[in-house]
Amino acid sequence: MSTEYKELLSSTIARPELRTKRIKEVVRRNLQYAMLSHRWEGKEPLLQDIWGKSVYDSELDSINGMTKLRSFCKTARNTGHNWAWSDTCCIDKNINVELQESVNSMFVWYHHSALTVVYLSDVPPSSKSGALAKSAWNTRGWTVQEFIAPKVILFYQNNWTLYLDDRTP
């Protein structure tokens, strides 16, 4: 029952010709998402680990990979996105059909993301130019599609600062 919702409803009733355009605008602004591109390192948080919880709950502190997931969520929020998507915990890998559909849809998901955050876990703070090319992130099978599909990519070093302090999309 937000003010924005009431205004949207009112404007689409009063001006039907604007209905689709206005709804698309509001949905695009509020439902844009950031995606995480990263290397899996050991155990990562799974859907079952975080289901029904906030990633910031202290009860999740003992789960390996939570620091990376929390840092990604914070980065997504700080860049103006209300939604964050990470393959480790947004796909139910116990359901084969969902897993296969997700793998087949990855390019499209990255393409439709508002932002792709590339986490370079092996690139230390204040790295020099060229560290990105040497990162193990480039050795994964998914790197090409995760690099060419998104419209906007930002690269982050292992302390979650921007690689080469480069903020250009």
TrEMBL record:
<dbReference type="Pfam" id="PF06985">
    <property type="entry name" value="HET"/>
</dbReference>
<dbReference type="InterPro" id="IPR010730">
    <property type="entry name" value="HET"/>
</dbReference>
<protein>
    <recommendedName>
        <fullName>Heterokaryon incompatibility domain-containing protein</fullName>
    </recommendedName>
</protein>
<feature type="domain" description="Heterokaryon incompatibility">
    <location>
        <begin position="33"/>
        <end position="124"/>
    </location>
</feature>
